[in-house]
Amino acid sequence: MKVVASARFLRGYRKLPEQIRAATDRKLLLLEQNPGHPSLRVKKVTGTAGIWEASVTMKYRMTFEIHEERIVLRVIGEHDEALRQP
């Protein structure tokens, strides 16, 4: 699947510490190659229609939606912060 980042995702990505950006880059490759990879710990965000979360680290998460053959990255940040954003 092709991965596409929203402007909001890119703003959040630029604010991350360098080592978290590097971890994110590795996870994005996994997401593109195999969205079901166990280290991503992908699950649906409770109470939403079609928003999913994936783990970058134990502290950082990213959310995304799936549209046809594209994964649209929505938000990235610390766990609670990333999951609160609509």
Task: Chart the SSEs and their pairings.
Blueprint: E1 2-5, H1 7-15, H2 18-33, E2 43-44, E3 51-55, E4 60-67, E5 70-78, H3 79-84
In short:
By secondary structure, this protein is of the alpha+beta class.
Any overview of this molecule?
The chain is 36% helix and 33% strand. The chain has 86 residues and is of the alpha+beta class. The chain has a single domain (2-84), classed as YaeB-like fold (2-Layer Sandwich). It has a 5-stranded mixed sheet with strand order 1-5-4-3-2. A hairpin with a 6-residue loop joins β2 and β3 (51-55). The radius of gyration is 12 Å and the shape is globular.
Low-confidence stretches: none
CATH superfamily: RelE-like
The radius of gyration over CA amounts to 12 Å
Strand ordering within the main sheet? 1-5-4-3-2
Provide the descriptors you would attach to this structure in a database record.
five-stranded mixed beta sheet; YaeB-like fold; globular; single chain; about 90 residues; alpha+beta; 3 helices
